[in-house]
Amino acid sequence: MRAYFLQNTENETRLELKDAPKPEPKAGQLLVRVRATALNRGELLRRGLTKPGPAKIGGTEGAGEVVDTGERVMGRLPGSFAEYALMDAPDAMPVPKRLSWEEAAAVPITYLVVYDMLIQQGGLKAGEWLLVTGASSGVGVAAVLAGKAVGAKVIGTSGSAAKIEKLKQLGLDVAINTRKPDFRDAVMQATGGKGVNLVVNNVGGSVFAETLRCLAYEGRHATVGYVDGSLKAEIDLEILHSQRLKLFGVSNKLRNGAQRGVTVDGFKRDWLPLFESGKLKPVIDRVYDFKDLPEAKARMEADAHLGKLVVRI
Description:
The chain is of the alpha/beta class. The protein contains 11 helices and 16 strands.
């Protein structure tokens, strides 16, 4: 089979198309004929934040057919930059009839992470305020759409005026055009001086202190990314304890299968019906053919996209 291998160096992630043997499923695994996969910033844009490692087949999510049964599935799919990949059975989710292969591939990792942030840990409720920094990223757009779908009021920041306009069209309630930590006043004005109930910080340490200042009493703060490359930030302990804030991180890196399974089960119960009804639908920036996967990576590196970059296999 054909597969794109990733090679991490000190400063970049390189792609190389090679022939590779078809993987052999073990007990509890499904062999999936991959029909589409999606790009994720955390895998492709290392920016020196992780150590170099040996080359391996890339990709973390996708959609396709189970070889033995023909079932249409989507989910966490390591090695999905290939014609075939292995999926752990507990990670498999049925593809809603409304979704194409490309749309299904844009759902799993992004929306599972957002479900974890907004619902499992964030406890977001209808009528509450949600602030999403870096709202034009894949996770950011999904957080905006999902927040609206559950009845929240959503504020988003982006450094691109053009992307801000597109986010407004997707239902963003309050749009703030900035890359700087200077949005608290606008947030407070929008919320009547109370602040937001939940923050999703996609940007990183450079805006962390500002996002804390935007929280309401008993607010919750999710840290999910650091596209600014800033892994350090000061914490105002006075705000933290007097406002009774909750700070949490979101990552699947150290979670085991059982822990991921809890999120998958909750997602299937609470959010899969939203995709089946059409109330939630992933936003795809562009779809690329398999041979053009390096072009998709270049578009991500240029931060030119809004929503997900998908590759058809």
